[in-house]
Amino acid sequence: MFANIGGLIDLSPLTLPNGGYYAGSFFDYPPKSFSLLFNICGYATRCNSLGNNTKNTNAESCAFYQNDDTAPPMGYIDKSELFEIKNGVSLSYYGGKNGTAQFKIYCDPRHIIEHL
């Protein structure tokens, strides 16, 4: 749950229990293709056992590069920001050496189509 000027924004219903994760794949993404594993407001424990990871990263997200068997963390729960955007929220996780994980969650899916 994140504090907001107007109250609280509760994203906990989107959190997958027991370290579960959502996944998305980015093919033909320069410099190489990868899969992004992430959880909302919770750890993605699968990131701990992917690639050459040998320790518990407690990452919210990681990018799995299958070609070179690496899965660097892309952000952590304790380094996060939440902002209201038109028709939704923007959730960012920082702290990964290879970038930031940013998610825009819209209340109305039609909003996405309007901005493509």
UniProtKB/TrEMBL annotation:
What Gene3D superfamilies does the record tag this protein with?
A: Mannose-6-phosphate receptor binding domain (2.70.130.10)
Annotated SUPFAM superfamilies: Mannose 6-phosphate receptor domain
Task: Output the superkingdom of the source species.
Answer: Eukaryota
InterPro entries noted in UniProt: Man6P_isomerase_rcpt-bd_dom_sf
Protein's UniProt name: Uncharacterized protein
